[in-house]
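Moderator note: this is an archived Q&A kept for reference. The question asked for a predicted structure of one protein chain; the sequence and the answer are reproduced below.
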Amino acid sequence: MVHMDMKDLYAIGDVARRTGLSVSAVRYYADAGVVTPAATTPAGHRLYDVSAIARLELVRTLRELDAGLDEIRRVLAGEATLRELATTHLALLARQEARLRSRRAVLSAIVRQDSTAGQVMLMHKLVGMSDEERDRLIDDFWTEVTTGWEPPERMVQWWRAARPELPEQPTAAQLEAWIELAELVRDTDVRQAVRRELQEACTTGAGPLMTSSPMLDSLEAGAAIGQPVMDAARGQVPPDSPEGRAIADQWMGWLTGIFATPDAPGLPDTPEFRVQTADHMLAGAEWDRMPAEGPFERYMELVAAVVNGPPEQFPYEWLAAALRASAVPAP
């Protein structure tokens, strides 16, 4: 052992107080070869210098961050940097957090549903699905729902496009929603109910007209017309301003043209029709706030509002106010 000036050395009790470690922990790290004493007294007592104390403080910090002894030895020996160690442990923590979120989602579902052992096993499997497995489950659902009748191809494309896309680090709420959604699409009764619901909506009453190619073209155009409405509401543009009136005019131009044919110009754009349309907008806002009733609505709600994150709500009230203001002739 190298002899050093005793005034630069500290007894193991002093080292324990300075580092916040117990005496037995300091002794353990010495015996494990992690931080050895700088010297020993003739009586065999261990003495540590300032450098050893600093290393022990680092050891304590790394242990509190769950670093293993081999990792700590590599850092102290210069074989690994603190950055490399932190990167490794961040990845480990991310995996642990993901597992905890999955467990929380399953446990929450158990509490909410009073689940059986079989359902618990299924839910555990659902939260661990890969992206490919989730896609295959959704594809199987839509294949069965659209088999046995002839839905409009473009509608099928829209339905299939609405699918869950969980982020790399989903929240517990998103995982709970995925559990419910996955159970929903696996249910044979639900698949049959959705098939009946969509088939009736597309083939009876106004369904054939609303799902015709010209109407679907108009609805797609309406999505572009709706963007200025959302931008104006988000920007707090006054509905009765010139900009609000211009947006209302654009909306009415689209709406009145939906039913236009080569032989008819479409619906008349009158002040009364604008007020009536405003009333319909307010009714739409109320309908939008209602909880989902059928399995198809619940599917869309889970995908759009929960699994993929809450979408921006369409500003029905703003558009209604702009339509009412535009029904009055500009000064």
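Archived answer notes: The chain has 16 helices and three strands.
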